[in-house]
Amino acid sequence: MALNYIWIAFFLIAFFIALIRLIFFGDTEIFMHLVSGMFSSSKASVMDIALPLAGNMALWLGIMNIGEKAGAINFLSRIVGPFFSRLFPGVPKNHPASGQILMNYSACFLGLDNAATPLGLKAMASLQELNPDKETASDAQIMYLVLLTSGLQLLPVTIIAQRAILHAKDPTDIFIPCIIATYVAALAGIIAVSIKQRINLFDRVIVSWLGGITIFIILLVWYFNNYLTKEQISAVSKVASNLMLFTIPIIFISGALYKKINVFEVFIEGAKQGFETSIKIIPYLVAMLVGISVFRSCGALDYMNDGVRWICVHLNLDTRFVDAMPVAYMKPLSGSGSKAMMINVMTTYKPDSFAGRLGCIFNGSADTTFYIVALYFGSVGIKRSRYAIPFGLFADLAGIITAIFVAYLFFG
Question: I need a surface site. Which of 150, 212, 260, 360 has the fewest CB within 10 A?
Answer without folding.
Answer: 260
